[in-house]
Design a protein that fits this description.
This protein has about 350 residues and is mostly helical. The chain contains 15 helices and two strands. Among the domains are: about 75-175, Topoisomerase, domain 3; about 210-340, EF-hand (Recoverin, domain 1), CATH 1.10.238. The protein binds calcium ion (CA).
Length: about 350
């Protein structure tokens, strides 16, 4: 039985050793997990196992795409190599005399193969990396009769060029793109995958923590720390029960989170989009900052269970309004524009 630290050591060693055994261009990846239904002996591993499981299943999801992409890249590479090979062989054949001095000429050609490479490279704009190894090629050519080589068939090269230009582009377009597959349904479904994306039970991955904390609870989770946030709110000098962007910002930047994140927090918290934060919205902002500071991710949209109870009706109204009205929402204080106009200047 190994403890957490030993497990890490075994994990690292396994990854390193496999890298030496497996002859693949990819770096070997080891996934670790627990495959029994007994209590975990080392509960510290729980998160690690969950993360690993997610990684494994995500990688499996991308397998069909990556495999197709790799095949396509291999095909392109082979086509290019075949083209270069045709150029080299036909160049050797072209320079051979038809009757006398064949052996001498062949020796010359093999000796000067480097120059032939250069010439083909210049003439057909081929990258040097596409040429076969010079020394190996010279060794192999010794055993061949150059007069039996075929002359260049331009028609065949045209077909290859057309394939590279048109067919490959078509095939490339058929491979699903990263951004699309990320939002659409997973490509690999069923079996073990059903358990991994558990969004129903409270034991699903990252359920009940970070942004999901408070989900399904009758009380608004932000209320729990509310007394702290309300005290802060009052010291920031609310006007008619609301904080201006500048006032809220002065407190929010104390989190030391970058403006890009605080801007996101602002957008999520200013639920009624009036460019100010009331005490509910401010408490929500501080709650979101707490979530982020604790290492969790923020969503792009505020989940229903985090919407302040006072805003449930308002939010629905907002969605009913035509687009133009929403566009009138004030600039968040973390946008570049706001920094120039609303930032309180420090006085000397
Ligand atoms: Ca507001």
């Amino acid at each position: 039985m190994v403890d957490h630290q030993q497990l890490m050591r075994v994990y690292g060693a396994l990854m390193w050793s496999l890298g030496k055994v497996l002859q693949t261009p990819e770096v070997a990846r080891v996934y670790i997990g627990s495959f029994w239904d007994q209590p975990l002996r080392f509960d510290v591993n729980r998160r690690l196992f969950e993360d690993e499981e997610q990684d494994l299943f995500r990688d499996m999801q991308s397998l069909p795409k990556n495999a197709a992409l790799r095949k396509l890249n291999d095909l392109i590479k082979r086509a290019r190599l075949a083209k270069v090979h045709a150029y080299i062989i036909s160049a050797l054949r072209k320079d051979m005399p038809s009757v006398f001095g064949k052996d001498g000429k062949k020796k010359d050609l093999i000796k000067n193969l480097g120059q032939i490479y250069d010439q083909i490279q210049r003439e057909h704009q081929i990258s040097p990396g596409d040429f076969p190894d010079l020394k190996k090629m010279q060794e192999l050519l010794v055993h061949h009769d150059f007069t039996k080589f075929h002359p260049l068939k331009p028609r065949l090269l045209e077909i290859v060029d057309k394939m590279l230009a048109e067919d490959i582009a078509h095939l490339m377009a058929m491979i699903p793109h990263e951004d699309i597959s990320a939002t659409s349904e997973p490509r690999v479904k069923g079996g073990a995958f059903d358990g991994v994306q558990d969004t129903v039970s409270p034991f699903g991955y990252k359920r009940g923590e970070g942004i999901d904390a408070g989900h399904g609870e009758p009380e608004w989770i932000v209320s729990k720390e509310r007394y702290k946030y309300d005290a802060m709110f009052d010291t920031l000098g609310p006007i008619d029960g609301k904080l201006t962007g500048a006032a809220a910002k002065s407190e929010m930047v104390k989190s030391k989170l970058p403006n890009s994140v605080l801007g996101k927090v602002w957008k999520l918290s200013d639920v009624d989009k009036d460019g100010m934060l009331d005490s509910d919205e401010f408490a929500l902002a501080m709650h979101l900052i707490e979530i982020k500071v604790n290492g969790h991710d923020l969503p792009t949209e505020l989940p229903e269970h985090l919407v302040p109870p006072s805003k449930h009706v308002h939010r629905r109204d907002l969605y009913l309004k035509p687009d133009g009205d929403q566009g009138a929402a004030k600039q968040p204080p973390f946008s570049i524009l706001a920094q120039e106009t609303q930032l309180p200047q420090s006085r000397p």
